[in-house]
Amino acid sequence: MKLKKVGISGLGLVFFVLITLHCSLIYSADNLPTGSIVPGFKITGPGSPQTKAYLGINDEKLFSLLQVKTKLTLVEFFDVFCPVCQKNAPLLNRVYNLFKDDKNLGKDIKMIGLGLGTQPEDLPAYKKAFKVEFPLFADPKKEIQKLLRVQGVPLTVLLDKNGKVLMSHPGAIGNFDGFVSEIKKNYQGR
Predict the structure, then answer these.
(1) How far apart are CA 89 and CA 57, in angstroms?
(2) Cα dihedral 122, 98, 169, 165 in deg (nearest 10)
(3) Exposed / middle / buried, residue 80 (Cβ in 10 Å: 0-12, 13-18, 19+)
(4) For residue 48, pLDDT beyond 90
(5) Which run of H or of E encompasses 136?
(6) pLDDT at residue 31 above 80?
(7) Residue 126 pLDDT more than 80?
(8) In this structure, how many other beta carbons lie within 10 angstroms of the beta carbon of residue 64?
(9) Terminus of the chain with fewer CB atoms < 10 Å: N or C?
């Protein structure tokens, strides 16, 4: 049987390929396209007092993106085991810090990460390993993923305060400056 000939390193390679394929599934045209409206959904949290203050959320067990006190919300859909998501994490930290340190952008653009299929207990290790400063939330049963029909991660979307998709960026961030410019272009006039 050929399976017996596959060693631990072979199984590791197979596992890596499967995880990589999961992370980089081909995105269909209807995967949160620009101009669409994101249906309402609830996120467990916001948790810490710092997260509540950052998002402007009252002490609630569940909240929606429409409750976030900001003009625009940048949402990163990710999976803690996705190598492409892990590669994006430092770039998203740069985006977060760039906006946070800007007088206007800091109050007008908020950022969250939503771990699809991620268990809440896996988030602290991910935050620590990749020094993620923006709030992360879990979608352990993939309910939000199914509702929004997110077909692969990473996927970064920029939403206005009404849930309209202004920008949808699937996959790795290849051009950091172009990515930030696109966000700023959508911010102008809001």
Answers:
(1) 24
(2) 100
(3) buried
(4) no
(5) strand 136-139
(6) no
(7) yes
(8) 14
(9) N
Q: What pLDDT, on the 0 to 100 scale, is given for residue 163?
A: 94
Angle CA(121)–CA(126)–CA(132) in degrees, nearest 5?
A: 125
Give CA–CA dist 126/18, Å, rounded: 20
Q: How far apart are CA 95 and CA 92, in angstroms?
A: 5
- The domain segmentation of the chain, as residue ranges, is 2-187
The answer to whether 123 and 136 have CB atoms below 8 angstroms apart is: yes
Cα–Cα distance measured from residue 41 to residue 170, given in angstroms and rounded to the nearest whole number: 21
Buried b (16+ CB within 10 A) or exposed e, 94-133: ebbebbbeeeebbeebbbbbbbbbbeeebbeebbeebebe
Q: What are phi and psi of 74, to 5 degrees?
A: -100, 120
- State the average pLDDT over residues 135-156: 94
* Residue 68: count of CB within 10 angstroms of its CB: 23
CATH number of the 2-187 domain: 3.40.30.10
What one-character DSSP code corresponds to residue 171? S
